[in-house]
Amino acid sequence: MNGWIFIELVIVSFFLWTVIDPIYILTADKLIASGYDAHNRYVVKIGNYESSNGNYQAEMNTDSICKESYNRIIRVVRDLPEMKDFSIASSASFPNSGSWNGTQIYNDTADIKNDKYIHTQYYEFYLQDGSNMFRTYGMKDAFTGADINIPADAATRQKVFLSEALARALFGKTDVTGQKVYSHDKSSYEIAGVFQDYKHRNYEQPYPLLVWVYNEIQGKTYMNWRYSITFSLKEGVDANAFEQRFKKEVMPLLKAGNFYCSGLESFEEVSYMYA
Predict the structure, then answer these.
(1) Which pLDDT does position 254 carry in this prediction?
(2) Burial class of 46 by CB neighbour count within 10 A (0 to 12, 13 to 18, 19+)
(3) Quick one: which of 40, 146, 171, 184 is 20 to 30 A from 78 by CA?
(4) Whole-Å CA distances, 45 to 107, 186, 253, 263, 274
(5) CA distance 136 to 148
């Protein structure tokens, strides 16, 4: 009799461990604040014509012309009357994107020698044309809950922003603005601010996140794979009406050189794809 009871307990424990526990954990993780706002935010999908395509123009395929062509598309998005904020970022630098970039960050140079690092995800965004990733995504300052201030010299002086999780992992606290972090080659980066914890995937817990800031994008043939364009809508804009207008009126304008707009995805749609 005791043997059967033991077997039943093993079966029940296995069920709880393999079925109930993952459901509980996933549900609990989804209830954690995401650190961004997905409402009325979009990713512009940009494609490029290959040499086998009839629309391909070989003379438009230099780095300088590619950069100017991509910038023309960026400015059309920037100037949309419905647009509130926009961001130019690397392709892995928006919530629930299909890619994920990571690196090793150190508290000081002694930690480099001892190989004592913190592994962190990183985002990259570019300040040109008024791009602001923090406002576009709705990321907030860890202390004030307000918009994050980006110093004018953030890019030229290689300043970075840390999530609360990364600040705690490196320093044991979040009040670290003005201190420095280091990469493996001993390059130092001043911390320009700390933002609220952030989830790259809705079903995950917040992972340490570092944000690099650069001035402008670089021209390349496949730069549409390298740089993402995202934006948020102004309050009061009808999202459905905007999406219809975008498809009919805006998409044809988002064509320059060998680049073209292949569609528009909301943050909610992107989140659903990787849920």
Answers:
(1) 97
(2) buried
(3) 146
(4) 37, 37, 13, 5, 17
(5) 11
pLDDT band at 269 (very low <50, low <70, confident <90, very high): confident
Q: Could you tell me the end-to-end alpha-carbon distance of the chain, in angstroms, rounded to an integer? A: 45
Letter for the amino acid at 120?
T
Place of tokens 């809950």: 145
**Residue type at 171 in one-letter notation:** F
Q: Is the pLDDT of residue 23 over 50?
A: no
Mean pLDDT of 181-205: 92
What's the rounded Cα separation, in Å, for the pair 74 and 78? 6
pTM for this predicted structure = 0.86
Pairing of strands 188-195, 209-214: unpaired
Q: Which two tokens stand for residue 233?
A: 């809508």
User: Residue 34 burial by CB count (10 A; 0-12/13-18/19+): exposed, middle or buried?
Assistant: buried
